Amino acid sequence: MVEFGQADLTSCDKEPIHIPGSIQPHGCLLACEGDTFRVRRVSANAATMLEMDGLAPGVLLSDYLSADMLHALRNALAHSLSLGRPAYMFGVHLAGATAFDLSIHVSGDDIVIECEPEGAPEDNSQSVANLRMMLDRLRDISDMETLFRAVVRLMRGMMHYDRVMIYRFDPDWSGKIVAETRSSVLESFLGQHFPSADIPVQARDLYRRALIRMIGDVSYTPVPVQQLPGLSALDMSLSQLRSVSPIHCEYLTNMGVGASMSISLIVDGKLWGMIACHNYSPKILTLGERTIVKIFGEFVALRIVVLLRTSRLQVTQQTHTLIENFLREAVPMSDMPSYLRQHIADLAPPHPQRRDRVMDQRAMDNAWHSPLRA
Fold this sequence. Notes:
By secondary structure, the protein is α+β, with helices and mostly antiparallel strands. The protein is built from 9 helices and 13 strands. The strands form 2 sheets. A 7-stranded antiparallel beta sheet has the order 1-11-3-2-6-5-4. It has a 6-stranded antiparallel beta sheet with strand order 9-8-7-13-12-10.
């Protein structure tokens, strides 16, 4: 079990969650020097999982891997650097007979290599086919509410989580569940609001940088990352296997959740919300499956951008029309409140959540007849 006894639930906004010093146990981690591939850090389970006896901080990875494999790792590293995000390798045989899926990125002075058991190729092929179908179903949706309903249904249909939700942030970073699909035995969270403290600032920063986060089993035992003496803690912000805050694991446990996954929705460069998935027993998706989910999340975010901009354009066009009609009709100043009351509905945004921004009649009258103040 993750140790929760020392967790201070009142100070989670100060928790250094990007440097946990441990990983989740469904994979292993190596961190090497870029030029020599000398191992600087290694998770305690790596030697056994990778079938590399004696693998420890200070050894050369070239003592375990072929020249061709090292060349492939360098190519993947170059790809990661050019993209500014982790690069993936699938079905890789490192040293033993077991094949692994790899995620590679740079963190500070370290090349970080994360290894997970290979996903079944036929499962990955099916996931790609499912992704094509899902994107086609979203492409022509023209309003947010319909989009959100479709997203949660499609995500649950593909990945089979017990509950899938869309969580939208408000300007003060509190949040609301705006769409949900769930197992029939579960209570609904739809419409519920959550305070900003539920997802503190450093967690939101990680969600913005790393677009997908999976916890395969909230009751897991963290695997420590061993490192050479004198090194500072490894920044694991982009790590697939990064160990999770014990505070968050306790939060999920209190909700009865056994596994979770979240996909960030980045709109105009900002964290707009998340697709949040809960399972009530342990559930691990392969790296290939998570890659498909990540692509789906990025497409959903793009659709949100398109719909928001379409809405803004419609309001702008309606405003121009109102102004043109006003000028053409030459409405007397004394009739202005009456004219605006008759036509203000033309400016109402098409989305229900924005209607509260339109003036009501009393507020408009007060504003029109109030004296100007310098």
